[in-house]
Design brief:
The protein is built from 3 helices and 5 strands; from the N terminus they run βαβαβαββ. The protein is α/β, with parallel strands linked by helices. It has one domain. A 5-stranded mixed sheet has the order 3-2-1-5-4, covered by helices on one side. It holds the Pfam family CoA_trans.
């Protein structure tokens, strides 16, 4: 997926973990913007956010679920059960 999209905007209920899933994309600096309801304990996420490399929009879980259909209608997306990549 990341060979086609250089800097996707990711919508996920969390920021993943350091060595798996979104954590791997963050480590490779493949995510430019993250919309999430919980950031968890991802050290790479924290580092990029505090340095200003990563744009973050914190959204309540209910709002995140409600807006999923709006994002799907208005964007080219790649969907997995855990994440929306816009």
């Amino acid at each position: 997926m990341t060979q086609f999209i250089k800097y996707p905007k990711v919508v996920s209920n969390n920021a993943g973990v350091d060595k798996f899933g979104l954590g791997l994309l963050l480590k490779q600096k493949k995510i430019k913007r993250m919309i999430s309801s919980y950031v968890g304990e991802n050290a790479e996420f924290e580092k990029q956010f505090l340095s200003g490399e990563l744009e973050v929009e914190l959204t309540p879980q209910g709002t995140l679920a409600k807006n999923k259909s709006r994002w799907c209608r208005n964007s080219s997306i790649f969907y997995t059960p855990q994440h929306l990549v816009l």
